[in-house]
Amino acid sequence: MPETVVLRSSRLKWLALLLASMVFVLGGALIFFAAPNGRGGGVVVAGFFGLTAVVALVQLLAPGRIELSPDGFTVYGLGTRRTTPWSDVSSFSTAQASALSKIVTVNPADSRSLGRAGAAVRKVVGFNRALPDTYGLSAEDLAALMNDWHRRYTGHS
């Protein structure tokens, strides 16, 4: 049977996001009811963070994951699944997503496969595809793990 590694999203992170979102929903409701001139803002705040809370709840109940296999990697999240063969990737690297966090970017083997929109996005932000989570690892450690698997199953150095 082929070797497979499964990494899962942190439930603690999604719980923290759910709790923070609920605080902002409450804040939006308070703005709506307490500030007659702020009703629109209260609706926007409560609506946005209400949707954020729903996403966090779904991820808390069914956390995302990534499965690494000799054929490639499959990312699961929010009811979707995307499989990418190792041969479609040239490498993995990291990029600064915000002041506090980094992400793992997926560099395509053939940049012509990006299309016009993908090439435009890549030109502006430096990449056009990233993994949705670091699955309990640092971005650097996950990129190194993904590059190790890529080398092992494609023979590229």
What do you see in this structure?
The chain has 157 residues and is of the alpha+beta class. It folds into two domains: 5-61; 87-154, no CATH class. 47% of the residues lie in helices and 23% in strands. The protein is built from four helices and six strands; from the N terminus they run E-H-H-E-E-E-E-E-H-H. A hairpin with a 2-residue loop joins strand 3 and strand 4 (80-85). Helix 1 (11-34) packs antiparallel against helix 2. It starts with a strand and ends with a helix.
User: What is the beta-strand fraction?
Assistant: 15-25%
Radius of gyration (Å): 19 Å
How far apart, in Å, are the first and last alpha carbons?
25 Å
Total number of helices: 4
Give the low-confidence spans.
Answer: none
**Can you list the strand order of the major beta sheet?**
1-2-3-4
Secondary structure class reads: alpha+beta
* Global mean pLDDT: 87
SSE order, as H and E? EHHEEEEEHH
Shape: elongated
